[in-house]
Amino acid sequence: MRAGLPRARPGQRVGLLGGSFDPAHEGHAHITRQALKRFGLDAVWWLVSPGNPLKSEGPAPMARRIAAARRVMDHPRVTITDIEARIGTRYTAETLARLRALYPGVRFVWLMGADNLLGFDRWESWRSILDSVPVGVLARPGQGLAQRQSRAALAYARHRLPAEQARSLATQRPPVWCYLSLPKIDISSSQIRALGQWQRTP
Ligand SMILES: Nc1ncnc2c1ncn2[C@@H]1O[C@H](COP(=O)(O)OP(=O)(O)OP(=O)(O)O)[C@@H](O)[C@H]1O
Ligand SMILES: O=C(O)c1ccc[n+]([C@@H]2O[C@H](COP(=O)([O-])O)[C@@H](O)[C@H]2O)c1
């Protein structure tokens, strides 16, 4: 394994929470704890993005975002990593393909807040994401019904795993996705930036 990359053993169930984390906040920590517990994961990696391909404005420098994320989430089973910058990927489909090649036998699960269901069909090769890894979707304040009726959700409706079977998500054969209802935390990085509590430039 290359220096600086997190470790995982074949058979381990690893959730991947990609994000700008600009900055990280309690909403990220909350869905991570819920995903660990309810999807029965061994670990969660926060993939701190070099920059969301759909966002025109760049985020704060990686080192600042990582340091802030580590202050928010200090948990023995959570790793905060700049792995996408290290392996040179930005699009999720590409990241997942590289991670599967780098970590044979590891059972990855792509994690995301339900807001991402809405625009998911604009992601690069979005179908290949759903076809290649189990996807865990965590409730987020907002348009719950619209999210669950988004193009991606409808196109893959028959592959939705009932929440009662959430613990088996990582070992299910894709395409498979699972929507978890949970107590919601109404917080976002945009709100924190709007309050002036985080600047993108030092
Ligand atoms: N409060 C929250 N509840 C549930 N999911 C969340 C919450 N905040 C963020 N997420 C999810 O965490 C992942 C990373 O989010 P991101 O870093 O973009 O934070 P954000 O608060 O959505 O940022 P921004 O407001 O800048 O768009 C996404 O999948 C997002 O849906
Ligand atoms: O691959 C894509 O086309 C794509 C488009 C939008 C978002 N993503 C990923 O989704 C994750 C959440 O992004 P963000 O900026 O909303 O935190 C992050 O890992 C992004 O790289 C990926």
Automatic annotation (TrEMBL):
UniProt-listed Enzyme Commission number(s): 2.7.7.18
Keyword set, alphabetical order: ATP-binding, NAD, Nucleotide-binding, Nucleotidyltransferase, Pyridine nucleotide biosynthesis, Transferase
Pathway the protein acts in: Cofactor biosynthesis; NAD(+) biosynthesis; deamido-NAD(+) from nicotinate D-ribonucleotide: step 1/1
Residues covered by the Cytidyltransferase-like domain: 16-194
Catalyses which reaction(s): nicotinate beta-D-ribonucleotide + ATP + H(+) = deamido-NAD(+) + diphosphate
Superkingdom to which the source organism belongs: Bacteria
Molecular functions (GO terms): ATP binding; nicotinate-nucleotide adenylyltransferase activity
Enzyme class: transferase
Single Gene Ontology BP annotation: NAD+ biosynthetic process
Annotated HAMAP family: NaMN_adenylyltr
Entry's family note: Belongs to the NadD family.
Protein name, per record: Probable nicotinate-nucleotide adenylyltransferase
Gene name of the encoded protein: nadD
